[in-house]
Amino acid sequence: MIDRRAFLGLSGAAAVGGMLAFGRSSGAAPVLRFPVNHSPAEWQRLLGPARYAVLREAATERPFTSPLLKEHRRGVFACAGCDNPLFSSTTKFESGTGWPSFWRVLPKAVVTRSDNSLMMERTEVLCARCGGHLGHVFDDGPKPTGLRYCMNGLALNFRPAQS
């Protein structure tokens, strides 16, 4: 038979262990609303399995696999989910991380939220139009912003500038 004190102690330890194992706090995340919405089935049909996993389930593509790493033409990088313009090619830089990286986002193109999913504090970057998971932003980028928007190439489409 377990007494009440032992039960409460074990329950508390289990709760802390769960937070450490899964990296999420017990507080509910605020619900974000976006102008472009689809059902999960519609998103899967529109995006295909790989892009759906990244944009809608916050998966991460393997590093150094995106063709956008070698994209150096003038143009705009847009959300692969809704075509929202996100980054100018003039802000792209070689970070050496294996994912397309940018030091500035276009105005009002993204929203961010706290992400504790890997037992560390990170800032997740979402498309402001459809809420698609794009990647994360870090404070180890180049001047003038010092930011590194580390994006999944599968979350982006490149639109070359018109000559």
Identify the notable features of this structure and list them briefly:
alpha+beta; six-stranded antiparallel beta sheet; three-stranded antiparallel beta sheet; single chain; 163 residues
Explain what this protein looks like in three dimensions.
With 163 residues, this protein is an alpha+beta fold. The chain has two helices and nine strands. It has helices spanning 4-22, 40-57, and strands spanning 75-79, 85-88, 92-93, 101-102, 110-115, 122-127, 133-138, 148-151, 156-160. A six-stranded antiparallel sheet has the order 3-4-8-7-6-5. A hairpin with a 5-residue loop joins strand 1 (75-79) and strand 2. The protein is globular, with a radius of gyration of 19 Å. The termini are far apart. Mean pLDDT is 86; it is low at 4-28.
**Pattern of helices and strands:** HHEEEEEEEEE
Strand content bin:
15-25%
Global mean pLDDT:
86
Poorly predicted tracts of residues: 4-28
Question: What is the tally of helical segments?
Answer: 2
Outline: globular
Portion in helices: 10-25%
From the N-terminal CA to the C-terminal CA, the straight-line distance is 79 Å
Strand order of the largest sheet: 3-4-8-7-6-5
* Major sheet details: 6 strands, antiparallel
Q: SS-based structural class?
A: alpha+beta
Total beta-strand segments: 9
Q: Over the alpha carbons, how many angstroms does the gyration radius reach?
A: 19 Å
